[in-house]
Design brief:
Elements lengths: L5 E14 L5 E11 L8 E7 L10 H8 L7 E12 L5 E14 L5
Antiparallel strand pairs: 1-2, 1-4, 2-3, 4-5
Length: 111
């Protein structure tokens, strides 16, 4: 991973589609979730990403990274994220964390 950003470090929880308030899926938009809690604490953080680049049709860096990911649920990972700003049609602005890549630090703990 060569992009700039910050890392979410913790246990890999999974990848889910992003849902609108009415429950409909946002086409092509997903979120990766990481439990960044320490010890018995749970502190879930997520970052969003598109599977394909809307200009080229090619897989995004995160989609390519996930295709190579083999750590499984519970593995210690670091997910490179970068903040992006969004503005809706009413002018309301918010920050998103955009996922750029995932790397395994160590495998899932044995049960």
């Amino acid at each position: 991973m060569r992009e700039r950003g910050v890392f979410l470090v913790g246990a890999f929880v999974g990848v889910d589609p992003v849902l609108r308030k009415n429950g409909d899926k946002v086409p092509g938009l997903f979120r990766v979730q990481v439990d960044c809690g320490v010890g018995e604490q749970t502190f879930l953080r997520d970052a969003s990403f598109f599977r394909t680049d809307n200009q080229t049709g090619e897989p995004t860096a995160m989609a390519a990274s996930l295709a190579e990911y083999d750590g499984g649920e519970g593995a210690e990972v670091r997910v490179l994220v970068t903040p992006t700003a969004s503005v809706d049609h009413n002018g309301k602005a918010w920050a998103n964390l955009q996922a750029l890549g995932i790397e395994t630090i160590s495998g899932a703990p044995s049960k």
